[in-house]
């Protein structure tokens, strides 16, 4: 339970830092576009990114189903992150981090949903994006 709380607090903290730090726009959205059928350089929509975040939160929530409020709290945090990324025109950067977390994370024996550091680079870019630092 504490590891899940820590994970949620980390997400909330990075979102808060992004909100405090910045005003401005991110780099070219085409820099991190996934191969998902969008035209070259076309940014994802907020709905596309939020849908991926929803799936991520549900996967993370499956690690320890004893905490029914976790998924709702996670969804709320990602709604704020999507809004910040959209405001800074860098939804593609946030999408890349969410996709990395989805692809690289799993439930540990301790019940923690973790990527074991595999997505640190994308997380830093997402933080910079939300803070307007790219």
Q: Specify the number of helices.
A: 5
Question: What's the gyration radius in Å?
Answer: 14 Å
Say how many strands there are. Answer: 2
* Whole-number tally of structural domains: 1
The quaternary organization reads as: single chain
State the major sheet: 2 strands, antiparallel
N-C termini distance: 35 Å
Mean pLDDT: 78
Instruction: Assign a percent range to the helix content.
Output: 55-70%
Content of β-strand: under 5%
Structural class: mainly alpha
Q: Please provide the ordered H/E string of secondary-structure elements.
A: HHHHEEH
What overall geometry do the principal axes of the alpha carbons give? globular
Record the strand order, biggest sheet. 1-2
- Parts with pLDDT < 50 across at least 5 consecutive residues: 5-10, 12-34
């Amino acid at each position: 339970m504490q590891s899940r709380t820590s994970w949620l607090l980390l997400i909330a903290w990075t979102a808060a830092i992004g909100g405090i730090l910045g005003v401005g726009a991110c780099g070219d959205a085409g820099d991190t576009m996934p191969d998902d059928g969008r035209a070259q350089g076309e940014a994802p929509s907020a709905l596309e990114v939020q849908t991926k975040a929803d799936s991520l939160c549900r996967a993370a929530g499956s690690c320890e189903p004893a905490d029914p409020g976790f998924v709702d709290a996670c969804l709320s945090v990602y709604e704020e992150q999507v809004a910040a990324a959209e405001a800074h025109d860098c939804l593609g950067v946030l999408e890349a981090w969410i996709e990395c977390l989805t692809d690289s994370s799993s439930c540990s024996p301790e019940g923690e949903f973790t990527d074991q550091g595999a997505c640190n680079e994308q997380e830093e870019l997402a933080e910079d994006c939300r803070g307007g630092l790219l």
